[in-house]
Amino acid sequence: MKRSYLGEFEEIVLLTVAVLEGAAYGVSITHEIIEQTGRSVRLNQIHSALERLEDKGMVKSEMGEPTAERGGRRKRFFTVTAYGRRTLEEIQEVRVTFWSRLLIRGMQSNELRVMS
Amino acid sequence: MKTSKPPRWATWLLEAFAHPDSREEVQGDLLELYAYWVETVGERKARWRYWLNALKLMRPLARRKPATHYSTPFFLSPVMIRNYLKVAFRNLVKNKVYSFINIGGLAVGMAVAMLIGLWLYDELSFNQYHKNYDRVAQVMQQQTSNGKIYTQSAIPFPLGNELRTKYGGEFKYLSMASWEGEHILTYGDRKFSKSGCYMEPDAPRMFSLTMLRGSEEGLKEPNSILLSESVAKAVFGEADPLNKLMKIDNKLDVKVTGVYEDLPYNTTFRDLAFIAPWDLYATSESWIKRARDEWGNNSFQLFAQINDQTHYETVNKRILKARYNNVDESEKKFNARIFLHPMRDWHLRSNWEEGVQTGGLIEYVWLFGIVGVFVLLLACINFMNLSTARSEKRAKEIGIRKAIGSVRSQLISQFLSESLLVVAVAFVLALLLVQLSLPWFNEVANKRMEVLWTHPGFWLLGLGFSLLTGLVAGSYPALYLSSFEPIKALKGNRYASRFQTIRFVSIPRKVLVVLQFTVSVSLIIGTIIVYRQIQFSKNRPIGYSRDGLMMIQMKSPEFYGKFELLRSELKRSGAIIEMAESSSPVTSVWSNNGGFEWAGKDPSLDADFSTIWVTHEFGKTVGWQFKEGRDFSRDFSTDSSSLVVNEAAVKFMGIKDPIGTVVRWGTDSRARSFKIVGVIKDMIMDSPYDPVKQAFYLLDYENVNWIDLKLNPAKSASESVAKIEAVFKRVIPSAPFDYKFADEEFAAKFAAEERIGTLASGFAVLAIFISCLGMFGLASFVVEQRTKEIGVRKVLGASVLNLWGLLSKDFVFLVLIAFGIATPIAYYFLHGWLQKYEYRTEISWWIFAASGVGALTITLLTVSFQSIKAALMNPVRSLRTE
Hints:
Chain A: Residues 20-90 form the Transcription regulator PadR N-terminal domain. Chain A is α+β, with helices and mostly antiparallel strands. Chain A has five helices and two strands. The longest helix of chain A has 27 residues, at 82-108. Chain B folds into four domains: 8-56, no CATH class; 136-346, no CATH class; 363-537 and 751-880, no CATH class; 549-746, no CATH class. Chain B is globular, with a radius of gyration of 38 Å. The chains are: A alpha+beta, B alpha+beta.
């Protein structure tokens, strides 16, 4: 409630940016997400997600050096801001809390495990 | 790897349409991905994916990157438009009176213009239901008699065959026709009185009737009848009408061979309920049988469709002498000329004067078209006047907007969008008004119009006009006010600049007010004169008494030979005081005849008279008034060859002592002699606007078509009618009891003029209303501007009367100028209009004076409301503000 809302896809992108540690730009993020999640993503989705994240102040970006393979064009590298990192941690905390309660209950009753 | 390049088109698209802020990295990413795809999935798929991605990365599919710095002003940025709309609505709500005047006035003006537009459309599309609209014509003729050229649609019987045999190459279809009239249709014991016509078998094709049952060939059978859809339904209900047997006028047996779709209301034949074969008509009565070879008997109509390759003019030239070549030597002097009257002119151009077409309803099409344009113009003038006047109050707003960075194009678009908004609201309101007032308008105009919701032209015109009004009205504030210098506007220095602008702006504004009142005053004068003309004609002495005068047409043979029985029965019942029969209804003349001779007649005079055959008591029934001599009387057996003539006849014949004059009719062995026994005052039977034609009244009990009844004034009309109906049902059970009242028929003669009067007065009221709205708004604006001045004047000792005079003077002056312009214009047009009428009212000076005083009074009332309010204001208050 306190933090700004983060969509599922945005969260994945944000995580990817964090994981890539400074090497995050459009193509590398796309490849990473395809590899890790197996879902098909398009470049435009990545770009708009990054723009939204930047709007919310969870990532920041700067232009890199020109590279030959891109026809001399620069890459825009993204890094997670402190606010972005805190948001990720909060999300994680909330999930952990829920999971721990679920696990405790799961030990108490076998039925639930059968059902799930 | 570098060998394959991405699709150039897609690259170009991306270059052109990607958002500038992120174009570089997007292009780079895509290029990198492309290389990757070529390696992994092959070039074909890679190209495809490149295309797809490039498209999706273009604007507006890709999200705009929010600007981190101030955006450049964009002409149509949504935020600003939202702001303009908000400010516009706030302005409208803040000045409720102005908004009402502005929107209401414009809506009324638009509604009037739309109604008139619909009316014009209806008039101009008259008869266009017929597919052969451009090729169908009525055959007419012109003849010269006593030096005058007469034009008529009645032609002789043999002309049809003559055109068919000798000039057949010019025509595709030809059809003789009887006059459309009421006939009795009988099916079993059910009787209907319906309007119908006898025509030749080609007629359904020529008029492109839509056959719902049976075929267009239906009239080829000798004893057949085609019914209109509504009549078929009324007679047979849901049953199949085909091959059912009916009777026309209780004497002609016919079989239904077809049903056609009802003709729409804006066609000449809209009332045509049935068509029967011409051949049946031609053998139905002895006088028609005789007429088959009579070139002198003009009693029929002829319709024609010309061939596809030819033109009316060509055909006209060929058939010119078609009748002249066949008439007797004695009739050659009339020089009959046959010509075609095209269907497209039937409705709008049907007036003839001295052989020349002089218009007809087309004049009203023009007149109302002009009125519509003017009313709309008035509304637009108001709208422009008020919006420009009001916009000057917004100089501060403009100053602030400019100070915080508005550029001129933004201010222009703001004012334009504001006026477009108001016009749009007015347009919607006008549509609503039209929809609501259409039933009333249809009744007044005798039309069945509908709003052309689905007609693209209607929308194109309506929206185009709205757009134009909005742009024109908004252009002054948009262009002029946006040029203000912000500092001056904010400092309140605008008073200085406004005094210059007032002089500059107020001249056109004054011109517009003058124009408005010119139109209004002209319409007032017009309305008064139209009404006076109607009243004048109504008050004309008609020469008989139409009170309680009832007329019944003798439509079938059963009516004849029962005169004495009917008369005695009806008189005994007490419902009537007298009964007679006549060949024409009292309110119309059905026959004219020539060939009369008398002692002292000018040999060159064509002796053409209205001839009305009547029974003995006709005079007593209708109450005609004698000037000389006596009425027909049963006491004189010689009266079967007596004549009663009217005053016009005495004058026409040029005889000093009419009583006893012998008149011979006819030249051959059938010639008869009559003696004039009485002279009556002129009876107006035909048009109340024309002079009464010379008429002979002859005694006859056979050649009559109408029963005339004078109801007993001591009894109520409904009581008498019930009694009369009972007698008729007993004496003539097979005929429907169908009656008319002379006063109603007489009143119907004024319908056209009254319609114009009602419409003209309606438009006049609206025009004045709109003008006053404008004046009211303008007055309050002026008063507001001069609040301080009025305060100072009051402090210095001006009285309320002084101030009232000061403020009203300007407007009164403008209205006086308008009156000066309107008077000659109105005089010119109305003088022309009145020339159409032989009996016409005078255009007296008091009409102009009255409308001038009226306009002035209205002006003063409108302006005084504002000026007195301003004059009564406490000067302390008005001086302290600001």
